Amino acid sequence: MSLDPFHDQGGEVSNRRNNAGADRWAPFFGKTRTIFEVGQMKRGRKSSSELASIAIATMAAPAPDAPYDLSDEAAEIWRTIVATLPADFVPREMHDVLAAHCRHVATGRFISREIDRFTFDWLKVDGGIDRLAKLTAIRDREVRGALATARALRLTSQSRYRPERAATARQALASGLEKPWEPRE
User: Fold this and answer.
1) d(CA 129, CA 95)
2) How do residues 74-117 score in pLDDT, each as one tens digit?
3) Do 39 and 84 belong to one domain?
4) 40 is in which domain, residue-wise?
5) 95 class by beta-carbon count within 10 Å (0-12 exposed, 13-18 middle, 19+ buried)
6) What pTM does this model have?
7) Quick one: 168 and 101 in the same domain?
8) CB 3.0-4.6 Å disulfide test: which of 21, 68, 106, 127 passes with 74?
9) Within this chain, do residues 76 and 43 fall inside the same structural domain, yes or no?
């Protein structure tokens, strides 16, 4: 069998685009062109209209909008997350996971506000300790759910770095380099 991408198994020169022998080399050399296509390629600099058409063709899709069934707070969390990511970071099949993440975060914030309102005088009342225990258990469950969905979406810092790169960054910080959050002297 010949390894030459321009010849069929029979040994003739092929002008066909989807040649089985040429397709074998596509991962290494990119799109294979026929003899006729090579002659039609334009040489030299591209005009401004050609550059403009390329820029239009490569524009990214807009970021997905929040689903209508999310609460206002959860929708705001959605918009905040989506605004910080590339438009194609969360594929369509993961939108339900992102919606669940936003619900977990919104519910966790609501429960945290309820716990913050809780005063220690209420502990003296019958059922006060039970109510506080239930609220903290709910908050813990929501935080765990938010963390699990964040991991599934690869939103955590740990999932964005390879272990070697994270170790390099940690060593750089430990070596005494200037930390951006510390004031300069």
Assistant:
1) 38
2) 999 999 999 888 878 888 899 999 999 999 999 999 999 999 99
3) no
4) 1-59
5) middle
6) 0.57
7) yes
8) 106
9) no
